[in-house]
Amino acid sequence: MKQWWNKIMVVVLAVALMIESGMSDPQANKISKSGRECSQSNSGNPNEFFGNLNVTFADIRRQLSVDKKHFATAQLASTSNAVFSLFQCRNYLSTADCIACFDIATVDIRKICNLANGARVIYDGCFLRYEGRTFYTEIEFGLSSEVCSGNGSVPAEDAFKLVAVKLLKDLADATPKIKSYFAVAKRQVFAGGPSEKASGTVYAVAQCTGTVSQGDCEKCLMGAYTNIQTCLPLPGGSSAAGGCFLRYNASSFFADNDITNIMPYIRGSSSTKTAIIAGGVGVVSFLLLTVALLLWYQLVQKRKTAKTGDILGVTKLQGPTVYRYNDLKSATKNFSEENKIGEGGFGDIYKGIIEDGNIVAVKKLAVRTSKEMSDFEGEVRLISNVHHRNIIRLLGCSGKGPVQLLVYEYMDKGSLDAFLYGKRRGTLSWKQRVDIILGIARGLAYLHEQFHVCIIHRDMKSSNILLDDDFEPKIADFGLARLLPTNQSHLTTRFAGTMGYTAPEYAFHGHLSEKVDTYGFGIVVLEIISGQSCTQMQDELLNQSLLQYAWNLYDNGTHVKLIDETLDSSEYNVENAKKMIEIALKCTQSPVSLRPTMSEVVVMLVNDASPEQKQLHKGSVKIQY
Q1: What is the pTM of this model?
Q2: Catalytic (active site) residue 327
Q3: N or C: which end of the chain has fewer CB within 10 A?
């Protein structure tokens, strides 16, 4: 069976390559290292598994050719031999070259990993991976591969190396901040002064898988940046892991009109020069003056205003900061009503300015028994190590006073609900709403699958989503979240959710799993799209919940009516908006098995695709909160 399939794929590949013009280049130079491509051997039914794999590969190829995508995923998750596949090619490749690279990869990956239920293969032009489990949000830090190319030397080797190192560092800094996680750039090399003719050019590209977090993209690219320097000053080099790719070359491998303006995303960028200039006395003087001005500005700012909490100073190894109760009491003006900024299920929240001038949010907790104290201290230690751009950082705690306190980073814009149906209603654009939805999904996927233990939030709602100055969402109020052992469901008698957002199996029967958060996420998405509260519908909708209203509209094929009337219709594509609503509804389905995992939700959102091309299943549970 396998030999027959390989022969068919070789023929398909040969035909595909024959019809391409002589100028095509799928950049299929392999860079993944031998011995690192394969996962475990298949312990199930190989025929069924590879039959499912064929289906996912066919779906990906359809997405590449019909939908003109450069990033695609496909899965068959409902069978005993589940398959999850992912493919990505460089954005500068033509559709034909992208497909050609995919065809080469599908042939190679079968030869390399015979009867394995997981494999990956990486080329300069593309990346293909499949597994028998979901992996879309993973970064394989320990499995990087590097390939150096070109045996000859480059003109002005020292200058070439300096320019290449700086360009690759800038790309590693900038790419995670670009929404597409993709950037290409080039810089000229000047061995002499600015009046000299350029002695060469460095061309480079950086890319991360579209389903990973910004923080993981940054870590992966910085690792690739460190590793790829071993190739310099050779004319070319590539470095890649499971979730990122970095390459440079002395010859062009992309068109000039594909070049990305990375300067706005470079850390500390002003108007950075693109060449190494000899005799840089003026440059040094300028840098010294800049540093002096920056130091002066920081001193002035310290005197003028209190700073927002600097979470970057708290590392993964440091653990939570232990604060004195009296210091936090003073910081919040004795927990005054004036400083009160919110109320949560676990206690009230206050704004505070601590001794170093940082602004923080202080949560009072009603923890009384010795067991609750033990749980509190253990979870504080654990959760202080949660690092993700879409999750509020727990900075520290105080457990020695009359009440227990948690200290979080402070978000000046407050909670999402105020922007949806509160005093700031109508101020969020469609793009901001979509970005917020994706950010929440990525944060939950991290809590469920990427942190070293599974954390279930249990109380997903709009008031527990805070926004920073750039409207980046941050999941809050999981300071006392209970932890779920890997691959186990949990039965609990302690309800910790909010009616209206809580999944029926948890609200009525106490069954707790990650899918409880998926349900709450779906409700929050409906609120974001509609601008309505799930428990306080307006006008003619008073007699039904938001979820019931959305399902009724979907059943009638009119779910576009759910979109917030304060939005300008020119801001969004109707079909994309409907697909977003369908993803939200999929998250609220019953039974639980029909709901996707949050990593699968991230993939659906990134791919901008409807969850399934078939009728969604509402389930038999009728809920009226």
Answers
A1: 0.59
A2: no
A3: N
